[in-house]
Amino acid sequence: MDMLLSSPSFAFMQVLNSISLGMNLFIIAAGLSLIFGVLRVINFAHGVFYMFGAYIMYTVSKDLQLGFVTGIIAAAAGLSLIAIIIERGLFQWLYDKEHLMQLLLTFAIVLIMGDLAKIIWGTDQLSVSYPEGLAGATNLGFTFYPTYRLMLCVVGPLIFLGLWLLVEKTRWGRLTRAATQDMEMLSALGINVPLIYVTIFIIGSALAGVGGSLAAPINSPTPGMDATIIVECFVIVIIGGLGSLWGSFVGALIYGFVFNFGSVIVPNWQDVFAFLLLMIVLLIRPWGLFGKPEREGH
Amino acid sequence: MISVFRSAAAAVILASTAVSANAEIKIGVLYPIAGTGAVYGTPAMHGHNMGVDEVNAAGGIMGQKVVTFARDTKLKPAAAAAAAKELITKEGVDVLIGGLSSSVGLAISEVARQEGVVYIATIPKTIQMTTKKLHKHVFRTSSHTDFEGDAIAQIVKKLGKTSVCDIQLDYAYGHDLAAGIEKGLAKHAPSVKKVIDLRSKLGATDYNAQITQILGAGCEIVTSGLWGSHFVNFAQQAKPFGLFDRVTYISGGEIASHEIAGKMGKDYPNNVISNTYELWYDHSFPGHKKFQSDLAKRSGKNETAMWPVLAYIGVKFIEAAGNKAGTMDADKFAAALEGMTIKTPVGDRTIDPKTHQANTGQFWGPMVKKSGVDYRVMSPVTFYPATLD
Predict the structure, then answer these.
(1) Are residues B123 and B209 in the same domain?
(2) Per the domain annotation, does B121 fall within a domain?
(3) Where are the alpha helices (DSSP H) in B160-265?
(4) Are B272 and B163 within one domain?
(5) Which of A215, A217, B66, B213 is a good FRET partner for A156, with 20 to 30 A between their CA atoms?
(6) Phi, psi dihedrals of residue A204, rounded to the nearest 5°
């Protein structure tokens, strides 16, 4: 706490720490939120998708030495393929069923993919090197800050912008938004709703993969890494509002700031404030800061 | 005709006696074998199974075959306690062994106390287990946080630095290691100043707030017990800040083990001094070469992990105590363990009859680059015996 008040560069570092953490989490949480917004599926398997993204990055960049960017592309492609298999093979049969069935299915996927990861990559904690040029620190004039973290501070908003333009400014985006309102009407108008669904699931899952691949140099790919991230993502999307892109973005930033400054100011209570915030939001505005109240009869 | 019946009856009695003699010794083994903890539990099970196979090949315990009932602790105290209870009440195990994290170890120990079954903790390190939470049926063959903290303090003294930052995980092991380091510093290096105490939650993935606080505090040494993926994440996040160029990082938590150094490869940071129970490339103690060779065959890799030796030693204590007691009755078995000495691939081990703690020392040293391999090795290797006097 003293350092925060006495050292502006230290305080600024905490701001950057908060933004970079928030942006990494946003990339993952946005996928979770997007899938819920359109498909109305609470995908518990999203964390395990993130874990697969990190492992794919390890295989591509460290084992195969094909480079970091190739690792990101491979993670996105790999998770897209998994998404097609899961959505077409499993989810499409459960859209009409109650939420409990969907939850159980996603939980089963968590267990199956978790064991699959152990069979493929083993149980060791792995490490992924920083890409060339991003391993060191950047001189910001009054302090140095890790270049890779700065990159996350830039990539997060770019992904947000890309998603926002896609959803708000394209015909496909309008159809997607319409699908969230009245899927049957859209179908009656001759729109291929299943195609919209599978595409959304691919984008959401690929975001988890990209988030995992980007996290790999700072978060060791290891069994069980999905359990932590899924909790953080749910906190973010509940604070921001399930299904809202803006909500995920702002929720992730709030989480980043609360977690980082909480760790500095009251280190023994670092987790409490994020969950306290979650409780307050649930009590006062259960649909989240940017969400909309659930309609009856969906 | 009567003699034929007598012979047949005698044969039946003998056969039933033989069945009784061939009854099994049941070991309930508790490691995390799925999820995050599998990274430790899986190799520990290799060591456990190797030990059990050796015992059975040598005729078992009291001539009876040893069988294992393995359960996943899920790295959670509640799950471990439930599994321990189930092993005792349903499977009827004679002895419990294993545990990984300190909180899990304490949970299993509590079940052992309630049920009157001996528990040998092979990995948990919290000092509480053999001090204020000691009971007549709990024994520990791993090291503990006071031994570890004392070794860290001795290394701090050797380096001749004056200021220390401490970062630990916020649970039993982290708190107890911090206390162990404090005690050690008071004894070996009383002039060293503790600048900052930091805690991170178990399972934490982001350490930027702590890293920047350490940098801001300006200490010369960082003492720690961040283990496994906690250390990998901390190191990967701290390197771009230049932390490892500014401080010497002295850590418990066995981050000098080959499973960490080998997997991190060239990502392993500079200026790290740490510990391990065993090194596949160090044959300081008699019997280690054969142990390592057998383990390599079993695990299918030459560069073996550290965790198997802990589980293996636990099984060897069960073998020795069972044969000495001549029974698996908990009280008599526990009495046999008290004061017992066995030979292990990493030196002789004796269990203190009062504290039920084995004198388990560890290898400590700086992690350095070595030509020809792409991972760090410990050099020089120094064995710190488990003594606090």
Answers:
(1) no
(2) yes
(3) 172-188, 208-217, 229-238, 243-246, 258-264
(4) yes
(5) B213
(6) -60, -45
Pair (B320, B265) in one structural domain? no
B57 in a structural domain: yes
**B135 lies in which domain range?**
12-143+287-358
- How close B241 gets to chain A, by Cα (Å)? 6
Whether residue B346 is found in the same domain as residue B368: no
Per the listing, tokens 């901390």 go with B234
My answer on whether B244 and B369 are in the same domain is yes
What's at B72, amino acid-wise? D
Is B35 in Cβ contact with A260 (below 8 Å)? no
**Residue in A14, A123, A235 to test binding to B, most B beta-carbons within 10 Å:** A123
The answer to whether position B3 is within a domain reads no
Residue B193: which CATH number? 3.40.50.2300
> Which ipTM score applies to this complex?
0.88
Based on the domain organization, do B131 and B203 belong to the same domain? Answer: no
Contact A146 B205 (CB under 8 A): no
| Tens digit of pLDDT at every position of chain B (389 positions) | 445 445 544 444 444 443 344 489 999 999 998 766 777 898 999 999 999 999 999 999 999 999 999 999 988 999 999 999 999 999 999 999 999 988 999 999 999 999 999 999 999 988 899 999 999 999 999 999 999 999 999 999 999 999 999 999 998 899 999 999 999 999 999 999 999 999 998 888 899 999 999 999 999 999 999 998 899 999 999 999 999 999 999 999 999 999 999 999 999 999 999 999 999 999 999 999 999 999 999 988 899 999 999 999 999 999 999 999 999 999 999 999 999 999 999 999 999 999 999 999 999 999 999 999 999 999 999 999 987 55
* B6 within some domain: no
Q: Are residues B238 and B301 in the same domain?
A: no
The answer to whether B32 and B72 have CB atoms below 8 angstroms apart is yes
- B300 inside 8 A of chain A by CB: no
Which amino acid is located at B24 in the chain?
Answer: E
d(CA A20, CA A252) in angstroms, rounded, equals 10
Start-to-end Cα distance in chain A:
48
Does residue B242 sit in the same domain as residue B155? yes
Cis omega (within 30 of 0) for bond into B380: yes
Nearest-Cα distance to chain B for A146, in Å, is: 5
Number of compact structural domains in chain B: 2
CA distance from start to end of chain B: 75
